[in-house]
Amino acid sequence: MTDTTTTKSAVRPSLLYRIWDHELCYSFRNSPLTIGAAVVTLVLILAAVFAPVIAPHNPFDTASIDLMDSELPPVWVEDGDIRFLLGTDNLGRDIYSTILYGMRISLLVGFASVVLSAVIGIVAGLVAGYVGGKVDAVIMRIADIQLSFPTILIALLIDGISRGILDRELHDAMVIPVLVLSIGISNWVQYARTVRGSTLVERNKEYVQAARVIGLHPVLIMLRHVLPNVMGPVLVIATLGLAFAVLTEATLSFLGVGMPPTEPSLGTLIQIGNDFLFSGLWWISIFPGATLAILVLAVNLLGDWLRDALNPKLR
């Protein structure tokens, strides 16, 4: 008996091998473009997380900033300073360090707003799809109304309301939560519609009917049985939504209703550089803009791969 058990355990593949041999992992390692996008995304995220360690200067420390170092070009251009690899802005802040810290803010707002959108959308979609009837009609009509307005307009509206309710100092202190709320609320509809559609299919399957028969509470059925089976499309939307959220934050900051110049994100840096672009100070906006474009492109490529990998019709 012992020998048989030992033989079975020896034959059973390890967890790492099963992960490596999974269809998703197989698809990933056989796509060089996806691997490259994942590496770029990981490098940028790690650079943002460890910005205080990697950055040679702290752009938020006003005591270390010297106005005499303002508007210096990149180090390879004439009059460049070796202390500032990508040059400095109009306040003397190191562009390279500011990009690292700015990317940190952009990713923080992006991740937080995606989580908020996903939570609101998943809850609304589960309730609408599982309960149905008037509840479904009300939730979907609210979603349809919101879809008739551009996302950026809704974000601007929420930001404007917060500026009217809060005084200036309090609003500046809560600018990140306000941005997360603005972007999160404006993007929940796509999660809700996707989850609702999947829930309408899942609620009529036998395992859900069996859960109802044994007397499980509808909330438990939705969370324990339905939710795990509708998470595939949600992961795809969340991945693509991260890139869209970062772009939305950059747009709001570029329009002057996002992060203040004292705590710049990538959008704020582009907005600052735009004022000096025609003065020949191209590096102030070009490098943050290129970083934003590379980050969004890499995340979008990952989202496209995940969408194709989780599509059973393409397997």
Automatic annotation (TrEMBL):
<keyword id="KW-0812">Transmembrane</keyword>
<feature type="transmembrane region" description="Helical">
    <location>
        <begin position="234"/>
        <end position="260"/>
    </location>
</feature>
<comment type="similarity">
    <text>Belongs to the binding-protein-dependent transport system permease family.</text>
</comment>
<keyword id="KW-0813">Transport</keyword>
<feature type="transmembrane region" description="Helical">
    <location>
        <begin position="138"/>
        <end position="158"/>
    </location>
</feature>
<dbReference type="InterPro" id="IPR000515">
    <property type="entry name" value="MetI-like"/>
</dbReference>
<dbReference type="GO" id="GO:0055085">
    <property type="term" value="P:transmembrane transport"/>
</dbReference>
<feature type="transmembrane region" description="Helical">
    <location>
        <begin position="107"/>
        <end position="132"/>
    </location>
</feature>
<protein>
    <submittedName>
        <fullName>ABC transporter permease</fullName>
    </submittedName>
</protein>
<feature type="transmembrane region" description="Helical">
    <location>
        <begin position="280"/>
        <end position="303"/>
    </location>
</feature>
<dbReference type="InterPro" id="IPR025966">
    <property type="entry name" value="OppC_N"/>
</dbReference>
<dbReference type="GO" id="GO:0005886">
    <property type="term" value="C:plasma membrane"/>
</dbReference>
<keyword id="KW-0472">Membrane</keyword>
<feature type="transmembrane region" description="Helical">
    <location>
        <begin position="33"/>
        <end position="55"/>
    </location>
</feature>
<keyword id="KW-1003">Cell membrane</keyword>
<feature type="domain" description="ABC transmembrane type-1">
    <location>
        <begin position="103"/>
        <end position="303"/>
    </location>
</feature>
<dbReference type="Pfam" id="PF12911">
    <property type="entry name" value="OppC_N"/>
</dbReference>
<dbReference type="InterPro" id="IPR050366">
    <property type="entry name" value="BP-dependent_transpt_permease"/>
</dbReference>
<feature type="transmembrane region" description="Helical">
    <location>
        <begin position="170"/>
        <end position="189"/>
    </location>
</feature>
<dbReference type="Pfam" id="PF00528">
    <property type="entry name" value="BPD_transp_1"/>
</dbReference>
<dbReference type="InterPro" id="IPR035906">
    <property type="entry name" value="MetI-like_sf"/>
</dbReference>
<keyword id="KW-1133">Transmembrane helix</keyword>
